[in-house]
Amino acid sequence: MTVSGTRKASFAGGVHPPERKLPAAEAAIQVLPTPEVVRVPLWQHLGAPCEAVVKPRTEVALGDIVGEAKAFVSAPVHASVTGTVARASVATLPNGRHVPVVTIKAADKQPWAGDALWEEIFGGRWPTDGLDQYEPQEIAERARRAGLVGLGGAAFPTHVKLTRNEKKPIDRLLVNGCECEPYLTADHRLMLEAPEPVITGALLARRATGARQVVICVEENKPQAIDSLRSAAQGTGIEIRALKTRYPQGGEKQLVVTVVGKEVPTGGLPLDVGAVVINVGTAAALARAVVRAGPLTHRIVTVSGAGIHQPKNLLAPIGASYRELVDFCGGLATDAVRVVAGGPMMGFTLGSLDVPLTKGTSGVTVLSRDEVRKARQTACVRCGRCIDVCPLRLVPTRLALASRVGDVELAKRYYISACMECGCCAYVCPASIPLVQLIRVGKVMVQNE
């Protein structure tokens, strides 16, 4: 579908949950003190897992590869501290996946910490001229070696998106700064505090993909971030576009419909309509990977919610535990009842805080008793609200039913694999049916088949 005329393009469905981004939106990014131990998962991205390339008692430096990617759709992982490799172990990630981890005991002395670490990753001057010295294939390869994945949560290997497909030329590069999930403000603070590497990364991604136009997309509820990016982008030809605040505006397919005016076909990719989408955090990481040869070892994480004493945005090493992030934010409040990896709409409830941080973790949401809706699940009343708000025009009740009864063919017939698990359906369901959880179970059924 191509949207034309003067009417502003938009995506189907969507909801308007309470934003609840304060006070985290006003909290400047702090650097998490180096943990005593990090546990770096070997599978924290879409695609094939990595293979460990270090053994116990091996000395590693910050940035060394500890897990090598053998497949094209994969991404290597790196040591996020300088230290000594400990005995191999397994961790259970928030999505329930059991994965091997490389455990590293941190050395007493680290090459960078505190403000020095921030400066190494995001500080200093970032070029906007002379980037044609980097060939498109070289940019994609540096992204691969640096272990870059989508930092908005999807964790899709970035080099795959940056690799040109001559049969499908790219017209627009969309840099996603919408951050539409309630509570989360990591991207917001990055755009405020370090817009320069975002701009440099966007220019490098344009060079890699051959895109004609670059648009950085930010929801209207972040006016300061919009101003910050516009100032940094002066003279680069990059457009900063303010979009209507609406969940899930930051979804890849929804962003393409809104900005490009075309629908990504079911089962397809933005590439099919001449677009590539990357996150603002991914753009900043790309700038560091290409210009400074720096691998992805840290990411910005929001810790927020009424159940945490001091909401903050933290620059934390991959493999740090959720417990360390929570403790650094003052610990759990007495009325905290649920800790979510990510935001409340798409995140996973944690059964333990001793879970390692991954590249795709954008936030930790700690909900209080008052923030958790307690409603008894009842039978579906066939109101159709879930269908009305689904941004992909699916039928969530049918998908949930197929999952309940184990009907794989029915699940496939209603395109269960197309579901982005945004949570809009569960948010509006008057029967309090756990639609997203059921759909996730159904996806596993399809995969196992």
Describe the structure.
With 449 residues, this protein is of the alpha/beta class. It folds into 3 domains: 1-33 and 111-372, NADH-ubiquinone oxidoreductase 51kDa subunit (Rossmann fold, 3-Layer(aba) Sandwich); 34-110; 385-448, no CATH class. 27% of the residues lie in helices and 18% in strands. A 6-stranded mixed β-sheet has the order 1-15-14-18-16-17, with helices on both faces. Helix 5 crosses helix 6 (223-232). The longest helix is centred in the middle third of the chain and has 15 residues, at 195-209. The protein is globular. 51% of the residues are buried. Residues 1-8 have low confidence and may be disordered.
- Tally the beta strands: 18
| CATH T-level fold name of the largest domain | Rossmann fold
* CATH class membership of the largest domain: Alpha Beta
Q: Tell me the span between the first and last alpha carbons.
A: 33 Å
Number of helices: 14
Major sheet details:
6 strands, mixed
Radius of gyration: 21 Å
Q: What is the architecture of the largest domain at the second tier of CATH? A: 3-Layer(aba) Sandwich
